What does this fold into?
Amino acid sequence: MDLIEILHPDAVRNTQSVGSKKRLFQDLAAMSAQNYGISPEVAVEALLERENLGPTGVGRGVALPHARLENLNRIVGCFIKLDRPIDFDAVDRQPVDLVFALFAPLSSGVEHLKALALVSRTLRDPGVCLKLRNNEDPGTLLAILLEGPASVAA
It folds into this structure.
């Protein structure tokens, strides 16, 4: 599985101001509706429901909100880079500015976990995060995400 299979090019944005986690989820839901035909109301509700189980802020300014949805036939994602970090109840208590949301079919099981691992591995790389934070253009952000972590030369 590669990010290119999950992330539509128009589902990558740089956002000016989002004041709260709920507003961020509304923006992610609007993106998922526009790019994948997901009901925005269903997406927001599912993201909030999952977040109530435990925060998806994984640390170092990164959040990976995710939800399983009915009537979805494949795993899809949306990425938002925030100009101003917001509180996300992250494990390290740091505000979040890089957000990759995943939406998966209810029956996805292991594939959902593989997608989460792929996104987590990508955004755990300090070099990837630095490049994302230093760029504004959605096309460039997409290219950085698809490039992924730098491989180590032998």
Notes: The helical segments are 3-6, 21-36, 40-53, 110-124, 126-133, 138-147. The mean pLDDT is 91.
